[in-house]
Amino acid sequence: MEVKKLNRLKVVMAEKDLSNIWLSKKLGVSQATVSKWMTNFSQPNLETLIKISKVLNVEITELIRTEEVQIEA
Protein backbone atom coordinates (compact mmCIF):
# COMPACT_ATOMS: atom_id res chain seq x y z
CA MET A 1 0.00 0.00 0.00
CA GLU A 2 1.33 3.43 -0.94
CA VAL A 3 0.91 6.55 1.21
CA LYS A 4 0.56 9.92 -0.54
CA LYS A 5 0.12 13.41 0.83
CA LEU A 6 -3.25 14.93 0.06
CA ASN A 7 -3.24 18.21 -1.86
CA ARG A 8 -5.41 20.45 0.31
CA LEU A 9 -5.78 23.16 -2.35
CA LYS A 10 -7.13 20.59 -4.78
CA VAL A 11 -9.56 19.25 -2.17
CA VAL A 12 -10.88 22.71 -1.21
CA MET A 13 -11.29 23.67 -4.87
CA ALA A 14 -13.22 20.45 -5.54
CA GLU A 15 -15.43 20.97 -2.47
CA LYS A 16 -16.31 24.45 -3.75
CA ASP A 17 -16.70 23.22 -7.35
CA LEU A 18 -14.17 25.75 -8.64
CA SER A 19 -11.83 25.41 -11.61
CA ASN A 20 -8.15 26.13 -12.11
CA ILE A 21 -9.15 28.77 -14.66
CA TRP A 22 -11.34 30.54 -12.09
CA LEU A 23 -8.52 30.60 -9.52
CA SER A 24 -5.92 31.77 -12.03
CA LYS A 25 -8.15 34.69 -13.05
CA LYS A 26 -8.88 35.66 -9.43
CA LEU A 27 -5.17 35.64 -8.53
CA GLY A 28 -3.82 37.06 -11.79
CA VAL A 29 -1.54 34.08 -12.39
CA SER A 30 -1.29 31.70 -15.32
CA GLN A 31 -3.37 28.55 -15.58
CA ALA A 32 -0.10 26.64 -15.81
CA THR A 33 0.94 27.96 -12.40
CA VAL A 34 -2.31 26.83 -10.80
CA SER A 35 -1.99 23.46 -12.54
CA LYS A 36 1.48 23.01 -11.02
CA TRP A 37 0.06 23.72 -7.56
CA MET A 38 -2.76 21.23 -8.10
CA THR A 39 -0.38 18.46 -9.15
CA ASN A 40 2.19 19.20 -6.41
CA PHE A 41 4.80 20.05 -9.04
CA SER A 42 5.34 23.34 -7.18
CA GLN A 43 3.80 25.13 -4.23
CA PRO A 44 2.61 28.72 -3.83
CA ASN A 45 4.62 30.97 -1.55
CA LEU A 46 3.18 32.23 1.74
CA GLU A 47 1.99 35.54 0.29
CA THR A 48 0.13 33.69 -2.46
CA LEU A 49 -1.34 31.20 0.02
CA ILE A 50 -2.79 34.12 1.96
CA LYS A 51 -4.35 35.47 -1.25
CA ILE A 52 -5.72 32.02 -2.10
CA SER A 53 -7.28 31.64 1.34
CA LYS A 54 -9.00 35.01 0.98
CA VAL A 55 -10.27 34.25 -2.54
CA LEU A 56 -11.57 30.84 -1.44
CA ASN A 57 -12.91 32.24 1.84
CA VAL A 58 -11.15 29.62 3.96
CA GLU A 59 -8.67 29.79 6.80
CA ILE A 60 -5.08 29.43 5.63
CA THR A 61 -4.76 26.37 7.87
CA GLU A 62 -7.25 24.62 5.57
CA LEU A 63 -4.68 24.90 2.79
CA ILE A 64 -1.54 23.98 4.70
CA ARG A 65 -2.57 21.21 7.06
CA THR A 66 -1.17 17.87 6.04
CA GLU A 67 -3.06 14.67 5.55
CA GLU A 68 -1.99 11.36 4.16
CA VAL A 69 -4.11 8.89 2.27
CA GLN A 70 -3.38 5.23 1.68
CA ILE A 71 -3.65 4.01 -1.88
CA GLU A 72 -3.85 0.33 -2.66
CA ALA A 73 -1.57 -0.67 -5.49
Automatic annotation (TrEMBL):
<dbReference type="GO" id="GO:0003677">
    <property type="term" value="F:DNA binding"/>
</dbReference>
<keyword id="KW-0238">DNA-binding</keyword>
<feature type="domain" description="HTH cro/C1-type">
    <location>
        <begin position="23"/>
        <end position="63"/>
    </location>
</feature>
<dbReference type="InterPro" id="IPR010982">
    <property type="entry name" value="Lambda_DNA-bd_dom_sf"/>
</dbReference>
<dbReference type="Pfam" id="PF01381">
    <property type="entry name" value="HTH_3"/>
</dbReference>
<dbReference type="InterPro" id="IPR001387">
    <property type="entry name" value="Cro/C1-type_HTH"/>
</dbReference>
<protein>
    <recommendedName>
        <fullName>HTH cro/C1-type domain-containing protein</fullName>
    </recommendedName>
</protein>
